Amino acid sequence: MMKLVIAKVFLACSLITCCVAFTPAFSPNIRVTGLCDTKSFALCQFRDPAIRYDLVGSASSKKGLNGEPIHKRISNDFQDGAADARVSPVVGAIASLPTKLARSGTLAKGLLLSSLSGAGLAFRQSWWCFPMSLALFPVYCLAVHGTHATTPSWWPMERLDGIAAQPSAALLIGGFLLSNLSYLISGLYLTGAISQRRRQGGEAKIGIGAGLSSQPLLGGLVLACGLVSLVYHTVQAIGPHHAVEALFYVDHGIAISSFFYFLVQCGLPSRKTLLIGTAGITLLAIPAGEAYAFLHSIWHFLSAGATVSWANDRVERRKQFIRSARRERKRQRRAGIYP
Question: Is the model's pLDDT at 161 over the cut of 80?
Answer without folding.
Answer: no
